[in-house]
Amino acid sequence: MKSTITILGLMLVLASACSKQLELPPENVLTEAQVLSSPNSADALLSSAYFKSYSSIRSYYYMSADVATGNALTIATNGFVSLWNGTLTPSSNLVQTLWNNHYSAINEANVIINLVPSSNFDGAVKTKLVAEAKFVRALNYFILLRDFGSGALTGNLTGAGLPLQLVNYANYDVSKNIPRSTCAEVYSQILKDLDEAAANLTDLTTATPQAFRGRAQKTTCNALASRVALYMRDYAKAITYSAQAMNNTTQYVLASSPALVFPVTSATANLALSTEYIFAFPVSFNSDATDNNLTGYYAKTAIWPDPIFLATYAPNDIRKSASMMTVGSPTGPAIRFCPSKFANPTGRDHLPIIRLSEIYLNKAEALVRSTNSINAEAITLLNAIRQRSFPTGLKPAAFTAASFATPNDLIAAILRERRWELAFEGHNMFDNIRTGVAPNAALTDQKKWVYPIPKREVDLTNGLITQNPGY
Question: Which residues contact 171 (CB under 8 A, 6 or more apart)?
Fold first, then answer.
């Protein structure tokens, strides 16, 4: 297999083929018959799984996590408002589409994981394909568990998680329906996939094209595992995975300023991926103006940063400055801003999924929680993110142990920094939930902190797949 095949270029070739919504379980008879014909065919299927992941992540669900907590505002008629105000129903097309899209990606990953090992491909090619497919499967299961797992973010790991489908479907067979595994079992499978993928993947080098930050590498797997372990409250593992994700100090480097990570671009720019990106969908590389990415922020008529939230940043913080909050569309309301994270005039900036700054904050939080102390390393990590967010000469005094009366005060500072640093990247709602904070005043019922299982899934399995409490 030629190593020059990159994910976004192949995604675009596959886009029209992937646009049709697959019923679940999808009919993949032809795909399975062809996948072993050549490494390129298998890589095309893997690219399709990546593309389905991207298509699902970039939709309403990415933006709703910030709307839910007031980082961003939206108009009340937007369909995705129901994702966070507790009014979703099991028959909602939103939850069915979310469920379908992620399970479609999982099924295509399963085809590769289960069939490629028996192919006659070169051994190294087989190993890489399977490892990347395991990352894709883990990513999609993590998103599904975060959204649908009863207790997954609130510490109830014995709660009902997801049907843990690890075998690809050739066609629908009712006998293959399976119940929901517990949240703990799903988390365990996610980490197993990431561990096995990391063990069989290499990492970026100076010779690796930048677009490969959109494909799984060893560091990508450890970085996602860092977030997974933090969410499941296994802080020892979160520390270990974070440390592993920070090992490649030549290819994954914290930028000296947030503005360098998210430069404002032109419609024709082929925007380079910052060394701070551990995993992102490099949308700019496909140079396709029809493939818009979070244009709601750019237009400022569907979603925009909340001025009240922006006022919580300290004076001189680059993350709320003109370099980070642009005018966006000139036809949009002048009183609103567009985050530079999505400031391309045609909405084609990269979609950040994991950045190194998150890993710093993951490790800092896990260190404090695991030691129940005002941990010195955690303060150093916090300062690294905080200090680089201000111009030279205007930086605030660095935190010291004396800055915090209790470990909880340090955790609060880390969570505040996390909200500022990762704003508009789809984190805040889930950070609130996992720390026991209601996302908003309309969503105080913890049963509504997860989405309902789609009615179709419950009905088709005659209740084998159970509904979440409260729906």
Answer: 25, 27, 28, 29
- Peptide bond between residue 163 and the one before it cis (omega within 30 degrees of 0): no
CA 225/CA 242 separation, integer angstroms: 8
Query: Average pLDDT of 85-98?
Result: 93
Looking only at the bridges linking them, the beta strands covering 325-326 and 351-355 are: unpaired
Task: Round to whole Å and give the CA distance between 4 and 11.
Answer: 14
Q: Shortest CA distance to 40 belongs to which of 138, 137, 116, 104?
A: 116
Cα distance between the two ends of the chain: 48
Mean pLDDT, the chain, integer: 89
Contact call for residues 285 and 211 (beta carbons, < 8 A) = yes
Beta bridge mates, 180: 163
Instruction: Return d(Cα 14, Cα 26) in angstroms, integer.
Output: 17
Instruction: Give the pLDDT score at 235.
Output: 98
For residue 443 the two structure tokens come to 């969503």
Which amino acid makes up residue 312? T
Per-residue pLDDT tens over the stretch 4-15: 334 444 343 333
**pLDDT band at residue 76, thresholds of 50, 70 and 90?**
confident
The C-alpha atoms of residue 314 and residue 322 are separated, in whole angstroms, by 14
| Sole residue written with tokens 């001189």 | 316
Q: Are 452 and 99 in contact (CB under 8 A)?
A: no
- Domains, the chain, with CATH or none: 23-437+446-457 (1.25.40.390)
Q: Where are the alpha helices (DSSP H) in 246-284?
A: 258-261
**Which tokens is 279 given?**
């995993």
Task: Give CA separation, 77 vs 63, 125, 301, 303, 400, in Å.
Answer: 15, 48, 12, 11, 46
Q: Report how far residue 166's alpha carbon sits from residue 149's, in angstroms, rounded to the nearest whole number.
A: 17
Q: What is the CA radius of gyration of the chain?
A: 21
Using alpha carbons only, give the angle 250, 254, 385 rounded to the nearest 5 degrees. 150
- How many angstroms separate the CA atoms of 24 and 165, rounded? 12
Cα–Cα distance measured from residue 51 to residue 45, given in angstroms and rounded to the nearest whole number: 10
Tracing tokens 């950040």 back to the chain, one arrives at 352
- The predicted-structure confidence for 372-402, as pLDDT tens digits, reads as follows 999 999 999 999 999 999 999 999 999 999 9
What DSSP designation does 73 have? E
3-state secondary structure at position 280: strand
CA distance 60 to 170: 30
Tokens of 358: 């998150």
* CA–CA gap between residue 128 and residue 120 (Å, rounded): 14
DSSP 3-state percent helix, strand, coil across the chain (nearest 5): 50, 5, 45
